[in-house]
Structure formats: C-alpha cells, structure tokens
Amino acid sequence: MDVQKVMVVGAGQMGSGIAQVCAMAGYDVFLHDLQETYVERGLATITKNLTRQVEKGKMTEEEKSNILQRITPSVDLQNAREVDLVIEAVVENMEVKTSLFAQLDEITPPHAILATNTSSLPITEIAAATKRPEKVIGMHFMNPVPVMKLVEIIRGLATAPEVYETIEAMTRKLNKVPVEVNDFPGFISNRILMPMINEAIYALYEGVATKEAIDEVMKLGMNHPMGPLTLADFIGLDTCLYIMETLHEGFGDDKYRPCPLLRKYVKAGWLGRKTGKGFYTYE
Ligand code: CAA
C-alpha cells in the first residue's frame, strides 16, 4: 500500500517529532490534538527545530517553508477520514488508547493503518478495540525523534504481513532504521533500557555513589551519550515508572520492581526536565 496522507494524534514531544519527520519525507500530515494550544505548541517546536537546521546551513528557507506547509493543524478527529495512516502518540494509558482506536476505526477509511507509538503497552490489546486488528501495528520512535535513527516495529498477534511491510518501507522513507520486534512488555528497547535506569536509581537510593558519579561511570565507561539519571530526567520519571510497572505486571518477576526512590520523586511531582526538577534541576 502507498501511504500518502498521515495523521499524528498527540502533538507533544513525540507526536510533534513524528509529524516533523513525516513532513520532511514528503508526507502530508495532520497534526492533531484535543486543543489548539497543544497543536500550536507542537508546531512551534517543529518550527524551532527547522529554523536551527536553516541556521546551520543544513536546510534552505524554502525547504523549511515547504515542510511546514505539509503540516495541517487539526482539532477535529473527523479529519482522519482522509488519511492512509494514523500514528498515535497520546498519553500512555490503555483506556485512553483503546477509546481513541475505537473512534479511529469508525472514522478512517477501511484501508487505513492504525499505528501506535506506545513505549510498552500491548499492541494486541489496543488492536482488539478495533474491528481491524490486522491493520494495527506498533511504530515506536525514540526521543528526540528527529535525531534518533531507530523505529521499533511491533507486530501484534493479528498484524497482517503486508501491513508490516508497508510500515517498514515507510520507516526507511523517513530515513530511519526499522527493527522488527514481537509484542511482549517493553518490546526490546524498554525491556533493556528501563531496568538499567531503575538499577541506576537503586544505586543512588542505596548510597553506592552520587548521581553525578553514576552518570559519569556510564558516560565515560560505556560511551553512553547521557548517564542513566540524566536520561531518566530527559524521558520523564513518570514515563520511566509507568514502563517499569508495565514490565513488573507483564512478567510478574520481582526483578522489574520499580525503585522506591523513583516512586517518591514521581509522587513529589519531580518528573525531570519537563517540570524543571528530577534527579537534576533545570532552568
Ligand atoms: N530535537 C531535535 N533535534 C535535537 C534535539 C531535540 N530535542 N536535541 C538535539 N538535537 C540535535 C541537535 O540540533 C544536533 O543536530 P545537528 O547534528 O544537525 O547539528 C544533534 O541533535 C546533536 O545535538 P547536540 O550537539 O546539542 O547534543 P548532543 O550531541 O549531546 O546530542 C542527544 C543530544 C541526541 C539528545 C544525545 O544526548 C543522545 O543521544 N542522548 C540519548 C538519547 C536517548 O537515549 N534517547 C532514547 C530515549 S528512550 C526513548 O525515547 C524510548 C522510550 O520509550 C522511553
């Protein structure tokens, strides 16, 4: 199938990044959210990213304006009746996602693929909320989307092979590298990344080292671009906790138990960069 028109639902950090890379690859994109202010904020982030590219001489003003013209703001979900693909990037909450997918199933044309950017929720369960589970698939982008090369593509139990192939081909068109993964909690990325972050939080909690020392060990010793506590702040501590809980519940194994310090920070509202405070303080 040839994808031409895309709707990205959710104009936050991930959704706006996904809309940006789709528009950069030549797709017409609706950037949809519940309120105009959310969509405007997403568009402002995209504009800022593209302006930086122009300033660095990596893009012309004309290219920037062509990319922006391909993005249409949307607060009316009925716009989805025109699209070939929806990529959902809303809050990580199963009820919100299943209700949205049921609506999209009614609105979108029968050929449309419904993809989710969920970082750990079961694709199979989201697909079951629709009458087209064979057209539901996971398309997991990494943050920051315009920079990170990986897209984990997750097959649900019922995902059709041709749907997988369409999404794989599109991912390459987005200048990203697709990696095929089956539907298990946390997929591959978060099954491995989050226990590492959780272990770093345990090391801090137990007083093994300072936060700076923990980050330095992983940056200089393992060549990670960010230490695990800096990365946790970057991802959002609420998201980290949510993913650990999904792993803990999904596998039923105590090795995935979220660190009490992570719970405490989330309860305090110290969610990382987005709230100005997490393990570190941000201006
Ligand atoms: N949006 C768009 N572009 C950005 C950006 C952002 N938020 N942050 C940085 N960039 C761009 C910069 O403009 C720069 O572009 P050019 O090469 O074109 O000049 C490039 O990225 C490098 O940026 P910097 O030199 O400012 O900074 P850096 O070299 O330290 O890189 C980083 C920043 C790419 C974020 C790097 O620190 C990094 O890779 N960190 C780890 C990120 C990571 O692990 N992400 C995965 C998180 S887990 C996840 O997303 C999945 C999940 O489900 C939780």
UniProtKB/TrEMBL annotation:
PROSITE patterns for this protein: 3HCDH (PS00067)
Alphabetized Pfam families for the sequence: 3HCDH, 3HCDH_N
EC numbers for this chain: 1.1.1.157
Record bears the keyword Membrane: no
Pathway stated in the Swiss-Prot or TrEMBL entry: Lipid metabolism; butanoate metabolism
Ranges where the 3-hydroxyacyl-CoA dehydrogenase C-terminal domain occurs: 186-282
Annotated binding of NAD(+), by residue: 10-15, 33, 92, 97, 119, 143, 274
Keywords: NAD, Oxidoreductase
A single BP term in Gene Ontology: butyrate metabolic process
Record carries keyword NAD: yes
Residues at the site labelled Important for catalytic activity: 140
PANTHER family: 3-HYDROXYACYL-COA DEHYDROGENASE FAMILY PROTEIN (PTHR48075), 3-HYDROXYBUTYRYL-COA DEHYDROGENASE (PTHR48075:SF5)
Matches recorded under NCBIfam families: PRK05808.1, PRK07530.1, PRK07819.1
Name this polypeptide is given: 3-hydroxybutyryl-CoA dehydrogenase
UniProt source species: Anoxybacteroides voinovskiense
